[in-house]
Amino acid sequence: MSGNRKRVKLPEGNIVRGLFRLARGDVGGMREFGNTTEAFSASIAPLLAFPLVSAVLFGLTGHWLLAVVMLLSRVCGVLLQPVITELAARYLASRATWLITSTALNWSIWLLIPLTLIGGLVSSGLVSLGIDGRYAVIGSLVGSFVYLLWIQCLIMRTGLRLTWLFAVPIVIGMNILILAVCLEPFLVHPSLMALIVHPGVK
């Protein structure tokens, strides 16, 4: 026997492995996402499905018009990312890799789940050290979002072969625009949040 241990290799295109590698700053994780329309469709489908389901559930409470408005704003927010990424890739002559860049950006959104859980643990630890609970929660949330922005900048920089000088403002501007579109229904209808929390109120 040669003495070499057999290693179990994960199949190519493992999304979890790609996200884990990117979270560590390993740009090699980009190869896990695929540069095809099929990979892109698989990444954006759940981002479109969740707003649809939540809109239907909200509409069943009797607020169908508001549900449609919320659905349209969230769908537009989801679609803004690939549009901006494709435009940036076209302008910067990197169109050959815009699909894999957009696909990785779509999947990166799901990192908010473990980041939020970790942030909750961190905030609890800070509170136990005597730090005010509000500041601990705000600090952990800000840290989570900043870390996610860093990962997205890493994806944009690697995927479109940019410098940090170009990647950072593109990602920040893109997220500000997406946030503005998604929050627009709440600005137009100030009591929308109250209706979501207490859907029985007319």
UniProtKB/TrEMBL annotation:
Domain of life: Bacteria
Keywords: Membrane, Transmembrane, Transmembrane helix
Chain ranges passing through the membrane: 39-58, 64-84, 96-123, 135-155, 162-188
Protein name per its UniProtKB record: Yip1 domain-containing protein
Organism: Acidiphilium rubrum
